[in-house]
Specification:
Elements: H1 3-18, H2 22-31, H3 40-46, H4 49-59, H5 65-72, H6 88-101, H7 107-116, H8 125-130, H9 135-145, H10 151-163, H11 172-182, H12 185-194, H13 209-217, H14 226-234, H15 249-255, H16 259-267, H17 283-289, H18 293-299, H19 309-315, H20 318-322, H21 333-336, H22 357-370, H23 374-382, H24 396-402, H25 406-414, E1 423-425, E2 431-434, H26 436-442, H27 446-454, H28 470-476, H29 480-488
Antiparallel strand pairs: 1-2
Length: 491
């Protein structure tokens, strides 16, 4: 928001009121109770600039002109984030996400609370995790972070922008986001040229435009391409600026399995060891969590961070796996360390990773399976990894099915994996009591579906949440080819 523009609009409004403009008089009476019943002659004689400023502030969702002014020009020590979504429900989801992740949050999220909530500014990370923290507290964090004193003030502003789309021009970050999201890259570039500071500003949850652009690039229907990312880099965007969870543009590229973007960011100095969503949550780990072996191979080519067992297994490098064991066969401390990252967003449930050797082995087997690293599966099973374990939201077989890893599926079945075992996957409202066949069908992986059927998968098993078979799941998620195949089996 440009304060000088706001001052000019207030002066223009004052002149219009004094000249007797009917629309201007209506705006004054509607937004300023003091003038609601005053006759027009008196209004035109007595109205002041302060009154016009108050009207303008109230129209834009602010309680007063000083609050608008503080939002437009925050104190230099503050780094308020900028709105870019005009949806109260979306903002509320951010609040609930902070509530869900606080007890297991990494330093970045705890820093968000410490910086913006006055009760926590001098608290340690552990004190913040353990202290009472309500929805009202989380709302206050988001309000203060955006430059508002209260949640109601923030929501008033969001509602104003939602109902006055033309007013988004007063929020340059929001205008840039809209252009970026729609793929209007020429408009986006023009906004960036007009206000180069946009390349360094932070939006809700601390996301920069570079972070958002890389995230959009992971979507198949986005029309932006690399040009928006290159424009931001040319404008001086910080390639290592993380959001309020520590998530950097390189994390976003890894999460979306975009090697070409990751390579560009690495060329510009992107850090391979930046952590997000907990200890050890590097870009490599963000890629391996989803079995994105293409970008993982790029990230792990020169450096493996962190160098623990699940990273070694996910990369499928036998020498790295071997280095995680002492000569007596026990896991090294490094093999079990830096596993604080266990979920990429708050949709996944709470979990507290331990250093229990069995859990570490089982998790490594899951990570090798979803990246189809068959070369290390035998070593892991030989030293005790359980092919049917469900260490965190998915067995090795289920993850291999989700990631369309037919070779891993076959290997696991050959080595004792239970084909019809019910387990978990994803969020609590998504995968409860599901089988590998459910997940392969839902994701439309027909070759894996056929392999599972050929090996004896029961297609009539129903999941625990929705009482749906694999065929029902395929139908619900629009996987028509899989649905027709399962239907063709009759019975």
């Amino acid at each position: 928001m440009n304060l000088e523009q706001q001052k000019k609009q207030a002066r223009d409004l004052l002149r219009a009121i004094r000249s007797g403009n009917a629309e201007a008089l209506l705006r004054l009476r509607r937004r300023h109770a003091r003038w609601a019943e005053v006759d027009e002659v008196s209004v035109r004689q007595l109205v002041s600039l302060h009154d016009a400023q108050f009207v303008l502030a109230r129209e834009q969702g602010f309680a007063s002109w000083p609050k608008l002014k503080a939002y437009a020009e925050p104190a230099s020590r503050l780094r308020h984030t900028r709105l870019f979504v005009t949806d109260v429900a979306w903002m509320t989801d951010r609040v609930h996400g902070l509530l869900r992740t606080r007890s297991s949050a990494g330093p970045a999220a705890l820093g968000q609370i410490r910086e913006w909530h006055p009760r926590f500014y001098d608290r340690s990370d552990e004190e913040i995790r353990q202290a009472p923290f309500t929805e009202e507290d989380a709302r206050l964090v988001y309000a203060r972070e955006h430059g508002f004193e209260t949640w109601d003030d923030l929501i008033n502003r969001v509602n104003f922008l939602a109902s006055n789309l033309a007013a988004t021009t007063s929020e340059p970050f929001m205008a840039a986001f809209v252009a970026l999201q729609s793929g209007a890259i020429a408009d986006f570039a023009a906004l960036l040229r007009a206000d180069p500071r946009l390349a360094g500003e932070r939006g809700t949850n601390g996301n920069t435009l570079l972070n958002l652009a890389v995230s959009f690039a992971g979507k198949q229907d986005w029309k932006g391409g690399l040009s928006a990312i290159e424009a931001l880099l040319a404008a001086g965007a910080d390639v290592n600026q993380g959001n309020d969870r520590g998530w950097t543009p390189l994390h976003a590229a890894a999460y979306s399995n975009k090697p070409e973007i990751a390579a560009l960011l690495m060329e510009k100095g992107a850090a391979l060891d930046a952590e997000a969503h907990g200890a050890g949550g590097t870009p490599l780990i963000a890629a391996l969590f989803w079995g994105h072996r293409e970008v993982a191979d790029l990230l792990g080519r020169d450096s493996v961070a962190p160098n623990n067992l699940r990273a070694a297994a996910g990369l499928g490098i036998p020498e790295l796996v071997a280095a995680c064991f002492n000569p007596n066969g026990a896991l090294t401390p490094e093999a079990c360390s830096a596993r604080g990252f266990y979920r990429p967003h708050s949709g996944f449930p709470d979990w507290r990773p331990s250093t229990d050797p069995q859990e570490v082995l089982d998790e490594a087997l899951v990570w090798a399976s979803k990246s189809n690293r068959v070369a290390v599966l035998e070593r892991l099973v030989r030293v005790g990894a359980n092919v049917n374990a469900d260490p965190y939201r998915g067995t090795p077989l289920i993850w291999a099915a989700v990631c369309n890893r037919a070779e891993s599926v076959a290997w696991l079945l050959d080595h004792g994996a239970s084909i019809n075992q019910k387990a978990t996957f994803g969020g609590l409202t998504h995968g409860q009591g599901i089988t590998a066949l459910h997940m392969a069908a839902q994701y439309g992986h027909l070759p894996v579906v056929k392999l599972l059927i050929e090996r004896g998968a029961d297609r009539f098993i129903k999941d625990d949440l929705y009482q749906s078979t694999a065929e029902g799941g395929a139908a619900y998620f629009g996987q028509n080819e899989v649905r027709e195949y399962l239907r063709s089996l009759g019975g």
